[in-house]
Design goal:
This protein is of the alpha/beta class. It is built from 7 helices and 6 strands. The strands form 2 sheets. Strands 2-1-6 form a 3-stranded parallel sheet, sandwiched between helices. The longest helix is centred in the middle third of the chain and has 15 residues, at about 65-75.
Length: about 160
Amino acid sequence: MGECVNNCIFRRQSNFGYHSKSFSQSGYHQKNSWKETTVSTMSERMNAMFDHADAFIALLGGLGTIEKIFHISSWAQLNIHHKPIGLLNANGFYDNLLSLLDHVVEQKFLTSLARQIITFAATVKQLIDQLQSFIPVIDFFISRIDCSNMTSRKKLRLDFSLYL
């Protein structure tokens, strides 16, 4: 996470952290953002990140990280947002997850266009470069679903601030 923050600092980009109160009090939290906010619940954390983020980067992580990857990716698939989503695939950490997504496409539970929602790269620099050149993928089959009543979820402001 520190390398992502340092890369943003080098590029003169801001970054913010959102932490749940219980996580902050657990002793696992380390300050590594320019600005941090503590929220009451994990749902509030997800909504705060979503409302303020220009892009999403998943670092190496466990079930919570994977849940957030799929949560935010499903919103992109439903056209609730068009923000870039990236996985830092350091040392092939997410290779099996990416293989699973390819398998889901092969089994026709996911379109190949929807599979392209998630970008991945082996280094922070590669990932940030890919996210900055991101062009939203619109799955025209899914785009017939109207999620436009979620107006707060439609903001797109791509100054590429990083939210952790």
